[in-house]
Amino acid sequence: MNEQIKVIQDEIEAFVISNESDVEQFRIQFVGRKSRLASLFDGLKDVPAENRREVGQALNQLKNLAENKFNQAQESFADAKSNFVVPSDLTLSSPVQQGTIHPLTLVRSRILEIFNRMGFSVSDGPEIETDFHNFTALNFPANHPAREMQDTFFIEKGAGEIQDDVLLRTHTSNVQIRLMQHQKPPIRSVMPGRVYRNEAISARAHCLFHQVEGLYVDEKVSFKDLKDTLYHFAKEMFGKDTKVRFRPSYFPFTEPSAEMDITCLLCKGEGCNVCKQAGWVEIAGAGMVDPNVLENVGIDSKKYNGFAFGMGIERITMLKYQIKDLRLFTENDVRFLKQFN
User: Fold this and answer.
1) Alpha helices in the chain (DSSP H)
2) 282-321: buried (b, 16+ CB within 10 Å) or exposed (e) per residue?
3) Closest by alpha carbon to 229, among 146, 295, 287?
4) Is residue 141 over pLDDT 80?
5) Are 172 and 195 in contact (CB under 8 A)?
6) What is the pLDDT of residue 306?
7) 67 contacts 32 by C-beta, under 8 angstroms
8) How far apart, in Å, do the first and last CA atoms of the chain sit?
9) For 277-316, how does the pLDDT look when each residue is reduced to its tens digit (9 = 90+)?
10) How many CA atoms lie within 13 A of 164 on its CB side?
11) How far apart are CA 42 and CA 34, in angstroms?
């Protein structure tokens, strides 16, 4: 027994504790209930009676030696922990930096600011809409391609006619319909928002994008009012040197209708790949509100008329900042987003 005590004593004194793992190993070997030292105490009953007192004193001294070393090690590492300052977020690889405003938000705010100065309010509406507000009230024929599954995300079939079908809005024109249903002319408002179309995602197209549409309904509104409004917007948005042209077009909800082009900001009208060598880039569709649309929402088309227009925020943002890939807006790449201050 005395030889075993001497061996364990030498091991305790030679044991080097350099980290918390060593502390735990020391406890298991010399301090715990199943340690080697505990086994010696269990064997004390087998020591002859005349030697038991001497051996017991030696075991107690060995126990005190082990416990003192263990307690000192625990206190040492506890002090080190108390002096350790935990970073605010251990998962961060670099200091927190101030974020920037998304380019689509920047352009949207600028568009609304320009139209607000011209007296337009801002209106909003649901993204999940009925066929009536998205198509029927806007004078879309029942067999129009926009109603088909390849263009529109339909959610469920209505219980009754086609106008009861539920879908994701394909434009913010649904807000125009709701506004005219609940407000009497004069109406002058713009409708920004997210819209959805079932298109393949590429550098020039996406299944979701953002629009700003505008509506002005009053007595004696002319096409000249429409042209002057959009002409002023283009100059304010893209610069005073920007040239504007209107081309005849067709939309079910306006008559007459036009497409609005501006000189390409990349080549300054000289012709490039972006404008397909034309020198012009389309930014908006517009026209005088079709009388059928006014009648569908309970407005007397013989007394009132008006104009409407719509433009894609992504298209304008790509022109303004010379961005060539539409997908960058939704990829959340910090290297791209931090360019916009």
Assistant:
1) 2-14, 20-26, 36-42, 49-82, 103-117, 131-134, 173-182, 223-238, 291-296, 313-321, 334-337
2) bbbbbbbbbbebbebbebeeeebbbbbbbbbbbbbbbbbe
3) 287
4) yes
5) yes
6) 97
7) no
8) 80
9) 888 989 999 999 999 999 999 999 999 999 999 999 999 9
10) 5
11) 10
Q: What percent of the chain has pLDDT over 70?
A: 93
β partners of residue 156: 166
The pair phi, psi for residue 256, each rounded to 5°, is -75, 165
Residue 218, beta-bridge partner list: 305
Evaluate the CA torsion angle 129, 134, 136, 138 in order and state its sign.
Answer: positive
Q: Is residue 15 very low, low, confident or very high in pLDDT (cuts 50, 70, 90)?
A: confident
What average pLDDT is seen over the chain? Answer: 87
Q: Is this structure's pTM higher than 0.85?
A: no
Rounded mean pLDDT, 229-241: 93
Q: What is the pLDDT of residue 84?
A: 56
Q: Which two tokens stand for residue 229?
A: 């409004």
Contacts of 204 (CB under 8 A, 6+ apart): 326
Q: Could you give the CA distance from residue 333 to residue 337 in angstroms, rounded to a whole number?
A: 6
Rounded Cα distance between 260 and 212, Å, is 14
**Scanning the structure block, which residue is given the tokens 């504790």?**
17
